[in-house]
Amino acid sequence: MDAQSLSWVLLVSFLIVLLLGPMAIPLLHRFKFGQAIREEGPMRHQLKSGTPTMGGVLMVVSVAFTAWRFSSSPVTWILLLAFVGFAIVGLLDDALKVVRKKNLGLTARQKLLGQVIVVVLFYLALYAKGWHFELIIPYFNVPLQLGVLYLPFLALFMVGFANAVNLTDGLDGLASGTTAIAYAAYAFMAWWDSQWNVSVFAMAMVGALLGFLVFNRHPAKLFMGDTGSLALGGGLAAVAVLTRSEIWLALIGGVFVIETLSVIIQVISFQSFGKRVFKMSPLHHHFELVGWSEWKVVGTFWAAGLAMSILAIYWYVRP
Questions:
Q1: What's the pLDDT tens digit per position in 236-255?
Q2: pTM value?
Q3: How many separate domains does the chain show?
Q4: Which domain covers residue 50, as residue numbers?
């Protein structure tokens, strides 16, 4: 598949979200599917209360159609299994938040169980495909055989990244922009390795995210909700698995890793010493509270994600 074909994938996916957005936003308003803002967050975020949420559904529709249209293959269906599966868990969480009119959907245990079920189904699909359950160590290209340990690794890996993207989704355009950059990096890497089906899926994600950014950029007219953030993270991890580049995702998705670490550090520090390292976690809220504008935080995080993705690609393709 050449670059022109991938450009068509991006364009079709982008246009689907762009066309569906103006129809979805008033519909979500009519049914009062508005975002509830947590009280402990920055005060200025309370102005965003009631902004339509569950916009992730638009991306699911767009990516599913585009990937099926341009690359209907077992690999495509396996990727969609992970992507749509995590989206369903997020959709249930979002729906409960809307019904309860507060930022409380599924319990942590229920959400974790749903995500683990999706991972197990993804694992079984890989097993049926005859997948070799191993990790490829960068530079050395040595396969590390995990055997039965691959399933718990996969659960930690996919659930971890799904929730890392979910944590990052706290400012207008932050998660959608950073994941678009990460998916673009994987689209190129998959294309470089002649993994056309994975490249098509990743490029469809880029198109859908760019279309969503039209409505999600500051000031956002539409939020993706957990429907979108969990799906984006789970899909990104699935792409890393199918390209056998799980370890590379730590760099390509470095923004998500740092956001998650900021939460872990904050919790450990407060529980152990009664002190906070950051004014608020995840990290993007810390920068807000030190006086950065929302656009400055988002732009800085986008730039960091782009720099890490370019670095990863450089190391990945060099002989």
A1: 999 999 999 999 999 999 99
A2: 0.94
A3: 1
A4: 3-246
